[in-house]
């Protein structure tokens, strides 16, 4: 009996293409595409690539449909599309980082990080971004000090207390604020400065940056707070813990990882803002440690000014690239820190 | 410090939906009272009105009186936070605080309320865990996260957390519905011990459980879907299960319901 059962073809196991088949199909499509390209004398390699890609998708579908059936063929096509989308998203990112690193490392050294432009003309070699780093850190730091608490508290209000029209109005305005172009935030603060007849200074930039980061923080914090299960709030309330203490000791600790990530991402976003800084902080080749008085430098602004004032000088371009690399590194470090905090603070599982 | 609960004419709403209507009953101190009834008849809702957790739900509203030893929980000037310190609650699904260790979970009530002495904390935690029959299983890993326990252990952890603040009344909403028979037995034994000190109210869908653990049983029912739930009768558990005075109760208990 058992031998009979063994010989019956399994209904659960269909024919499968061998593991190496995608590579074989890819190689085949590439070969055909090169053949067609040379035969038809197509100049652009992009065309070759497109032909190869199309061939690959079509032949994958046809072959898989023949051997494995239509459902598996569709599955393979979907897998292909996901990979293509992934590559399309990664290519610009990698090439951007590649170019920035390649051009940026030329002048990026300790001297560059610890000196400012001072009296070095934009067309000369030398100088550095110390003033810009100081300016960026102070402006972004102050903006975070203002924006993060207000943003987090607003989100707490919306999720934990908000009912009815007031909270709907706040949600609406937060949505509107998310869409404010950065230059408009800059102009808003500039109009205030003009009313009081003030000169550019770092803190004005911080205010504009805070306006830009607040809605982002409100949104991300709101999502994180909504993820905290209601049962935890009820468990705490049922112990006779007041609501504010429940929020402080149970809700926030449970979601602190996500909230920090949101704040860090908002910081990363405003660290690269140029427009409001250009209007309000103005830029300064000399070191100014005081964000409350006098023009300051800032990294994105420095990049822009080096590029704009270069008058074709290679030295200025090099400095602009090096500053870009510094800015990207800064943002990346922030992201890594955010991930680290998120992992460290995540609710613990396991024995 | 067990206290008597006296409910009269209690009606509870979710927004405009009337969930339970005109419920009156007395819950004796140092006894176990079981609530039984079909799904949706308002057992949980009624339980939550007893420690003012009902109003935590958006739109939750209560009419009527709940006297805790002659003091109306819904009277003017009553602080719901103090009410909840006297009337503790254990939920259907175990819900330990995920960011806290086992120790911190049990200590949470005292810590979060802020009125404790550091030296007492250790003793209270040990006593509560022993009271919840969990001490032997966790005494070597008090600093590990509470979410790393099994479901039954988590539920007993939640019971330990609830009794650590020494409430006068303990409300339990289907505390065993997610548990295996052995954990269930452990919790039933525990209920038997706890009733020496607390007034206990337990919601259950398990008739045998109600018969085993409770001294008195209340049967809730609703006339039709969308109608408010009502208290059909409350009596000694033996009477309810042998010779109830209302036909609907007998039908429900013997499985001839609906
Ligand atoms: N948060 C809520 N918002 C609106 N209506 C609710 C809410 N919770 C419960 N209800 C309604 O109140 C009524 C009673 O619900 P309740 O949860 O008290 O029933 P129950 O007897 O505990 O049922 P079960 O045995 O299934 O737990 C139901 O009609 C339910 O739809
Ligand atoms: Mg219920």
Secondary structure layout:
The complex is a heterodimer of chains A (351) and B (258).
Chain A: H1 2-7, H2 21-40, H3 45-67, H4 70-104, H5 110-114, H6 130-161, H7 164-178, H8 182-195, H9 202-227, H10 230-238, H11 243-271, H12 275-280, H13 299-308, H14 314-345
Helix pairs in contact in A: 2-3, 3-4, 4-14, 6-9, 6-11, 6-13, 7-9, 8-9, 9-11, 10-11, 11-14, 13-14
Chain B: E1 5-14, E2 17-27, E3 32-36, H1 43-49, E4 60-68, E5 71-72, H2 80-86, E6 87-90, H3 102-113, H4 118-131, H5 135-138, H6 151-164, E7 169-173, H7 181-194, E8 199-203, H8 207-213, E9 216-222, E10 229-236, H9 237-242, H10 247-253
Parallel strand pairs in B: 3-8, 3-9, 6-7, 7-8
Antiparallel strand pairs in B: 1-2, 1-4, 4-5, 9-10
Helix pairs in contact in B: 3-4, 3-6, 4-6
Bound molecules: adenosine-5'-triphosphate and magnesium ion (MG).
Quaternary structure of the protein: heterodimer
The main sheet of chain B comes to: 6 strands, mixed
* Name of the CATH first level of the largest domain in chain A: Mainly Alpha
**What's the rounded overall pLDDT mean of chain A?**
89
Tell me the number of strands of chain B.
Answer: 10
Structural class determined from secondary elements of chain A: mainly alpha
Q: So how many helices of chain B?
A: 10
Instruction: State the strand order across the main sheet of chain B.
Output: 6-7-8-3-9-10
Family (chain A): Belongs to the binding-protein-dependent transport system permease family. CysTW subfamily.
Membrane topology (chain A): Multi-pass membrane protein
Transmembrane segments (chain A): 20-40, 46-65, 77-101, 140-159, 171-195, 201-218, 250-271, 320-342
Domain ABC transmembrane type-1 (chain A): 133-338
